[in-house]
Amino acid sequence: MSLTTLALIALVPLLIWRIYQRLKTQMGRQRSILSRHYTGLFVFSAMLLVPASELADRPLELAALAAGAIGGIALGSYGLRRTRFEATPEGYFFSVPQRMSILVAMLLVARVVYLGIEIYMNQGSSQPNPRFTDSPVTMVCLGITAAYFASFSFSLMRWRKQKRKEIDSP
What we know:
With about 170 residues, the protein is mostly helical. Helices cover about 75% and strands about 10% of the residues. The protein has helices spanning about 5-25, 35-55, 60-80, 100-120, 135-170; strands spanning about 30, 85-90, 90-95. Strand 2 and strand 3 form a beta hairpin.
């Protein structure tokens, strides 16, 4: 085993731990900022639409992406029922179900790390490097993650608009 491989083996768990810790701090009580919800909806919808446009000629991967998206929406609606919403004089806040949100995010992170390791292991061999959209498993992970967070962003936008209507109507 080369020194680079040993360093990779040592650093991957550290990388995973740092990503987990970062997600853990981000998934706590958050201020609801409408522009962030619009941005989240745009970014996570694009995460679904861009690969879907590339997968038009590959029905298995497209079906995997669609199945993951359906699962992500289902998880998002379940998580939304467990989300705590707060309208305080300081502003609007929400607290997502932390464990489930971290699990969904780490699902995609783990798959990306796996693909990175696979690309590293293919170095020097005649095998081509895998593309992100080549594997149905990757498409399921991407679909779940993107649809979960897109559905959360959409629901948070609806909640904020509902609160605005309550304030505007006497």
